[in-house]
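Reviewers of the previous submission asked for a worked example of the structure-prediction workflow described in the proposal, so we include one complete record here. The input consisted solely of the amino acid sequence. No template or homolog information was supplied to the procedure at any stage.
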Amino acid sequence: MLNSKGFNLGRRRRRVIKVVKKKLPTVFTCPVCGEEAIRVKLPEGSGPAIVQCGACGLKREFAATPSSQIVDIYCMFTDAFYSKDKAQTPAPVANSA
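From that input alone, the workflow returned the following structure tokens.
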């Protein structure tokens, strides 16, 4: 409703605050080639989850449960990859003089 001077009477409008929800990633970085090309395919229900790089062709399978998330499988993949590399690299040998 307008008063005699042409101004609206009443309360100010409230600002609408939009809450942005962050989403989990679906494409990950490959530890071999460094490209963002790792995709994780989860099966319906239970079964093996497939982790595959689209750039270098690296492919691994992991056991997945129905409650597994894509991020969980990727973390299992990186843990297995880096633990395998550390186990295969020989320890430096100290020269005894």
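The helical segments are 70-88. We consider this example representative of the routine output the project will generate in years two and three.
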